[in-house]
Specification:
By secondary structure, this protein is mainly beta. Helices cover 5% and strands 56% of the residues. The protein contains two helices and 17 strands. It has a 15-stranded mixed sheet that branches. A two-stranded antiparallel ribbon has the order 1-2. A hairpin with a 6-residue loop joins strand 3 and strand 4. The longest helix is centred in the N-terminal third of the chain and has 12 residues. It is globular and about 60 Å long.
Length: 306
């Protein structure tokens, strides 16, 4: 219900609609079929309840808008690691959830709730492992995908009609990423980075080009303080993000330049209620003008969890 279509607010949009088909009695192998999160990255897979920053970073989220698509994904994780994934979420350590130690899959590639526009499904693979070292948890992982994306054509901000370097307006879309996470007990750190190629608008010629290089990621530090004034926890955090590359799902796939620094604190009052105060300094490309804009703002969010 937080979605918008044009100027219409409060639109209900289908997010997840899938079935898990378990292939063994221990439930270590399963196939998830339907619309669900695409296993690319760590923060992309976190729910808003587990994510500290109010928004997902542009660098990896630009790979899969709304984090979801229609597809089939094979997940495998040993039973004790599945239990560890669950613990990292239930204990408030900001885990990503159970998306397997190994993941293989195929999906449409046009992102959630959008019709497939070409005959080339995306294929994806991901591997991750959460280590337990003494009283601490550490996770490392990585993966990538390959596919074809069809871009919507429009006009540049000055009214010039955009053309495509491909007759079918379908372009190579491929990325690889790495992830490292130190869970906050009490200090934590997360780092993710991805590189790849994708379609991108050349503003000078008003033409969408194929296989243009993109890269970016984020680094986040956090500190978890339990039992503050009788509440669950207080978690200060700071995150820096950079991204240079296009967003394939935006009309004309313009190039984005993003440099952001966000500092904030999450207060878990009770398990079902949290308050986040964040201050952000931003330098980013505008969707409408394709120029770099600068700004800073403070945000306050009250969230109910279930």
């Amino acid at each position: 219900f937080a979605s918008t279509i044009g100027e219409q607010l409060g639109v209900a949009i289908l997010r997840d609609w899938y079935a898990d088909i378990f292939l063994d009695a221990e439930k270590e192998f399963r196939v998830r079929v339907g619309q669900s999160k695409v296993p690319f990255g760590f923060e992309n897979l976190q729910s808003s309840q587990n994510r500290l920053a109010l928004d997902r970073n542009d660098a990896l989220n630009s790979a899969v808008k709304d984090e979801r698509d229609l597809g089939a994904f094979l997940y495998w994780a040993p039973k004790h690691i599945r239990a560890r994934f669950k613990h990292l979420v239930d204990s408030g350590l900001k885990g990503s959830g159970d998306y397997g130690v190994l993941a293989l899959g195929a999906y449409n590639g046009q992102t959630a709730n959008r019709i497939e526009l070409n005959k080339f499904p995306h294929v994806i693979a991901r591997a991750t492992w959460p280590f337990e070292i003494g009283n601490q948890f550490f996770e490392v992982g990585g993966g990538g995908y390959y596919g074809k994306s069809t871009v919507t054509l429009g006009s540049t901000p000055d009214g010039t009609k955009v053309t495509s370097s491909r007759a079918d307006n379908t372009f190579t879309d491929a990325r690889a990423h790495v992830t490292t996470v130190l869970y906050p007990k009490p200090f934590g750190f997360a780092f993710e980075y991805n590189v790849g190629v994708g379609p991108q608008l050349d503003l000078a010629s008003a033409t969408i080009l194929d296989s243009q290089f993109l890269h970016g990621g984020y680094a986040q530090a956090m500190f978890k303080i339990d039992d503050v004034l009788g509440t669950v926890a207080l978690i200060p955090f700071v995150r820096g993000t950079l991204y240079d590359g296009s967003k394939k799902f935006v009309t004309n796939a313009p190039k984005y330049h993003v440099r952001e620094l966000e500092a904030g604190v999450e207060w878990q009052i009770i398990k079902a209620l949290e308050l986040v105060l964040a201050y952000q300094i931003s330098e980013r490309t505008s969707d409408k003008s394709y120029t770099t804009q600068y700004g800073h703002w403070t945000r306050l969010q009250l969230q109910f969890n279930y």
